[in-house]
Amino acid sequence: MSVLVFTENWDGKFKKMSFELVSYASKIAEMLNTQTVALSIGDVQEDELKTLGNYAADKIVSVNNDKLKNLDNQAYTSVIAQVAEKEGAKVVIIAQNNMGKALAPRLSVKMKAGLGAGVSKLPSSVEPFTIFKKVYSGKAYSNVVIKSDVKILTLAQNSFEFEENKKSPAIENFEATIEDVKTNVSNVQKQTGKILLNDAEIVVSGGRGMKASDQWAPIEELAELLGAATACSRPVSDEGWRPHEEHTGQTGKNIAPNLYIAAGISGAIQHLAGISSSKCIVAINTDKDAPIFEAADYGIVGDAAKVLPDFIQAVKDIK
Amino acid sequence: MKILICLSNVPDTTTKAKFVNENTAFDTTGVQWIINPWDELALTRAIELKSDAANSIENITVITVGGKDAEPTMRKALAIGADDAVRIDAEPTDAYYVAAQIAEYLKSNPFDLIFSGIESADYNGSAVGGMVAEFLNAPSVSAVSGINFDSGQVKITRDIDGGNEDVSVELPAVLTVQKGIAKEPMIAAMRGIMMARKKPLNVVAPVEVEALTEIANFEMPQAKPACKMIEPENVKELVDLLQNEAKVI
């Protein structure tokens, strides 16, 4: 028996999310009194694989095959299922990101294992296996019982406080059976030098109150200063002021940074749904009755165009 | 080429979530029902693609798993421009159940492309599209933000975690789509609304499938303490609070 966790790497280096996942998986393994097995797909060196042991992985299974160079949902699902079976996995943990959303549903069907999508806490009980997840885009939560023998959970990003717990895991190279892949990837554009919105610990976000697309300099400057990612509200991306990847809210990205700074965003219910999991929210808006202030921890009633330069200066002063 | 679009009938996104029966059921009182926003974008893109005869798309069908109360939403999809609709007459208990029903329908009614929104605005499972694909042993592409046809080939752009990729797949395939695929959802014109009444809405009996999950109950988020207001002249104080009280910078 085991808890299996699927880790992702970026050019051979694990993402922070992978450590969150392993740490989370190890806590569930504790609840089930079993061991944590981490699966890595791709070309990852032994030294890097070992870092998963810092977060209590008992064993690491590494699968490296040229056919897995690009994400083919069927092939990846099949590899995870083969390893899950081999390791007698009772629970499989995957990230609730683009890759996880592509794989977890397929795996659920392949293994006839109930899916708990987007969990942010440990299960409240393992018998019955009960998970806690957002519903109605964060306007409420639900306790969901997974009835199948094997369970699949996807963990919401930046939702679980991971901790170091060093172990010395054995590393096993596993030759998975891989059929011909049906997905052909012709061109990859990677964002470089930019902090990804879903990974960011701090996010600076602008709304219609910024007035025009050429007014984004203070948002970008503040973001750069804080090591933050930039985001925007739906009207801003609909107007084409900012790319759709930056849209946070119910139909855009759901994020949970430590700090979310909302400049010129009134806080429509759909926007709040996407950002309400942020640990601390700062709102700057001219309208003192704007709903964003109900969601915020700290608020300033004022014009973001005037407040942001002072904000930037004040941050420079403490750095 | 035939396109199938999986639709969810969900509460309007401005709805405040409330629950009844000791928090075990969603309170539908006064709720407006809409096409799940991502599914609506999928439908919009399908109609845009069909309007170019070179793409030779003969049919766009919308499908849902739901009771009779889902029919106004299906009619809306027909008014926007779907050619016909299928309702599998069952309560959608969980994503596995819904996907199994749609996959069963597809086994006797094949389609070339199946679109599904990346998420539904109610249970946020991001699951149905991928599950349908696995049931059919068909390829799937997730987080699709662009679909174009180029001399019979389907050209797909998908978002990856930190970039995007141009992808092509063997058909039939399932694409789970997100923002970016269409600019804005199409709105039904009066003529479309009139025509929608005459378009077929077929009701299909469900097959027996056991759901793998069950909602025990719902909870409301904990109330937040009141927002601490700072004067606009005192941004220094805000930065101090973020550093020393909230400890986030």
Q: Can you walk me through this structure?
A:
The complex is a heterodimer of chains A (319) and B (249). Chain A has 319 residues and is α/β, with parallel strands linked by helices. Chain A folds into 2 domains: 2-173, HUPs (Rossmann fold, 3-Layer(aba) Sandwich), CATH 3.40.50; 202-318, Rossmann fold. Helices cover 28% and strands 29% of the residues of chain A. Chain A is built from 9 helices and 18 strands. Chain A has helices at residues 16-32, 46-50, 73-86, 98-110, 217-226, 234-238, 269-275, 292-295, 304-318, and strands at residues 2-7, 9-10, 13-14, 35-41, 59-63, 89-95, 114-119, 125-126, 129-135, 140-146, 151-155, 170-173, 183-190, 202-206, 229-232, 259-263, 280-285, 298-301. Chain A has a 7-stranded parallel β-sheet with strand order 7-11-6-1-4-5-12, sandwiched between helices. A 5-stranded parallel β-sheet of chain A has the order 15-14-16-17-18. The relative contact order of chain A is 0.12. Chain B has 249 residues and is α/β, with parallel strands linked by helices. Chain B has a single domain (2-220), classed as Rossmann fold (3-Layer(aba) Sandwich), CATH 3.40.50. Chain B is 26% helix and 31% strand. Chain B contains 6 helices and 15 strands. Chain B has a 9-stranded mixed β-sheet, with helices on both faces. Chain B has a two-stranded antiparallel sheet with strand order 2-5. Chain B has a two-stranded antiparallel sheet with strand order 3-4. In chain B, a hairpin with a 2-residue loop joins strand 9 and strand 10. Chain B is globular, with a radius of gyration of 21 Å. The N and C termini of chain B lie far apart (54 Å). The chains are: A alpha/beta (319), B alpha/beta (249). Chains A and B meet through helix 3, helix 4, strand 7, strand 9 and strand 10 of A and helix 3, helix 4, strand 9, strand 10 and strand 11 of B.
